[in-house]
Model the fold of this input.
Amino acid sequence: MKKIVCIISALILMLAAAVTGYGCSKEQKYTSYSIECALVGDVLSGTETVTFYNHTDNSFKELKFNLYGNAFRKGAQYAPVSSQYRSRAYYNGESYGEMNIISVTEGESPVNFSVTGEDMNILTVPLQAEVFPGETACVTIDFSLTLAEVIARTGINRKTVNLANFYPVLCGIEDGGFYECVYYSAGDPFFSDCADYSVTFTADEKYVVAAGGKLIGSSVNGGKRTSEYSATKSRSFALVLSEHFESAADASLGTEITYYFYNDDDPAKSLKAAKDALRLYENLFGEYPYETFSVVQTEFVQGGMEYPSLVMISDALEESAYLEVIAHETAHQWWMAAVGSNEIKYGFLDEGLAEYSVILFYENYPEYGMTREACLAAAEKTYKIFCSVYDKLFGGTDTSMMRSLKDFSGEYEYVNIAYIKPVIMYDCLRTTVGDEMFFKALKRYYSQYKFLNADPFDLVGAFEKAGAAANGYFEGFFNGTAIL
Done:
C-alpha cells in the first residue's frame, strides 16, 4: 500500500476511522477477485487477479488459497461425496476432476508457489513484501479445472453443470491466520471472508447461465457467449449452466428474483415460495443483502446448497420438500452469506438458524401446509429416534454441538446435531423469552455481523444484549448437557 504523504488526506482518513469504527463501516474495504474463465468441454480455464486487503491487526508474508476442485482428483484422501450418495452421484461410474495451478505472478514477477495442505488442497503464495494492516497485495493466478462427471457442488451432470468452488479462493482468516479446510463429505467444509467479485465467463452459447451476481453485459461471438457479472461482499461466486433452462422472474420486492428450472409443473409456485421467504426474512431479520437472487433447479444428491445470491435446489425432491428446501436455502442468504462463520467448526450456527427459519416460513404462510407445532413435533421425534439409535449402537450419544466436521460419524449424526437439535433449542428459547425479545436478538445479530464472521458466543451475546439471560441456556445445548 502506498504511504500517504498528504497531511490533509491522512486527516480525512483518520476522521473517517474515528467516526465509523473498525469492522463496522459501510465504507469498509474488501478483498477483490477479478476472474476471467472459459468452459470448453470438461475443462474450465481461468485467470484470476486477487487484490488482498488486510483487514486484520496482523501482517502476512504469504497468502493461502483453498483448492476445492482437488477434492475430486484420483487418490484424494477426503471424498467429496459420502458413501451414502456415491452411487447416485457418479451416474456414469468413477470419474475424476482436478485443479491445476499453471502460474502465479505478483506484478510482473513470477512467484514460487506451492500446492500442499493435508490433501493437496492449499495453494501457498509467498509475497514479495509483508502486508501490514490496511495494506494490499495483488497476485494473478492462472489455473485450470477438469470437471468430473458427478452430481455434486462442482461437476458435470446429465442436465446441468454445477460450477461452485471452481477457482482458488482465499482461506478464511481466523485468529490472525488463514484457516485451511479439507473437503469433508458431511456438512459444508467452507470458510471464507466477504470479497468483491468481477467475473467474465465464456461458454457455448447453447447454455443458459444462472449466476450468483448481477449480470452487467453479455455478447455472442463464434458460437460462444461471454457474460460479465458483478457481486459485492460475497463469500464466493457460483454458476449453474444448462441448455434446458427456462426461467421465471419477479422484481416486485425490489430484488430481482429469478427461478431457473427444466422440470417443474408449477414454476410460478416455486418462484412464489422464494419470494415469500425473502419477504418474510427481510421483515424478521433485516434487509436482503444483495441486488439479485437466483433459485436454480439442478441435479444434486442432497436437498440443496447455498451460495451468496444463488441457491441450488435438487430436481429429485417431491413438491412439498422442494418448496421447503427453497425456504431453507433462501434463509442462508442471511445465515451464511451475510452473517458468516467457520462452517467446519460451527456447522450448526448457520444451518440451525436456516432450519428454524423454515418453521417461521410455515408459521407465517399456513397455505404451505405445515404449522409451527407440527414442525416442532417432527423435530423432537426425529431427534429422539436419533438418540435412541445411537444409544443402542454405541452405548451413548454425543449431543454436543461445538465440534468440527471431522468429529461427526456421518451425515445422519451431523443433520441431527446441526439442523434438528438447534430447531428445538431456538423454539424453547423463543417460548421462554417471547417473540419481541427473540426477534430483537436475531435482528441485532444480523446487523452487527453482516458481512463479517461470527462465532457461537457472538450469537449468545446478541441475545444477552437484547435482554435475554441466555448464556447458561445456550451453554447447555452447546456442550450437550441440556436434557431434551
Observations:
- Residues 383 and 416 are 6 Å apart (CA to CA).
- Residues 372-394 form the longest helix (23 residues).
